[in-house]
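your task:
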Amino acid sequence: MGPENPELRGSAALSASEGNFELLVHSVRDYAIFLLDLDGKVVSWNSGAERSKGYQAREIIGQHFSCFYSRDDVAAGLPDYELELATRNGCYEDEGWRFRKDGARFWARVSISALHDETGKLVGFGKVTRDLTQGVLPNEQFRLAIEATPTGMMMINQAGEIVLVNKQLERLFGYPRQELIGKPAVALVPELPPAFLDEPRAVILGAGLDLHGLRKDSTEVPIEVGLNPLHTTEGEFLLSSVVDISERKRAERE
């Protein structure tokens, strides 16, 4: 018997390694880990995905991953938008409501990674989802209250980025929610003083001043902004109310 070919030995080791990795992925139960093709259809399914989302592999493989989203999110194009961002940036991360097979919703942390072959060609996406419902239930009433507020509301982190908005803020500035999350607050309110992010305090900006918000279409709207610091286990935030005072300004001029 001749000497063993080192290339064949390396290839066999790699195949064994890939097989072990696949076994590892399929054995993970706390995370839903699966692959999507370029069209967003499911091509693999692990036990964590089965446990989290309620679908057997034979039921979900070949189906579009938009079935995990609400009708409103699908109508707004969120699933395709997430794949677009993953393609553009290499990875997309988000938290939000997702849906199980039985229609029950759960709060999920989602990561989508673009997958490329050895030539750099995009071949699909890897998606990892973790159910965080138990950790966010105490905050759900807060989120519902913010959403129901008739005033535009946004929450800003210490980096000055928007982490939470309501539908009134979407309407006021003309942005869909997915474009607002992660956006610098100063992109909407250019005159927002940086000092309020460094040393947050309760204050109303715009009273007696000419404070303007900048809409997506680049038009300006006169606004009044209320800021209130929030101290949470996840860090320091600013809760901001944004009021369109166009009618008030018009009355003053008249």
In short: The chain has a mean pLDDT of 82. Residues 22-131 form a domain with the Beta-Lactamase fold (CATH 3.30.450.20). The beta strands are 32-36, 91-99, 105-116, 122-131, 152-156, 162-165, 203-205, 212-214, 220-232, 235-244.
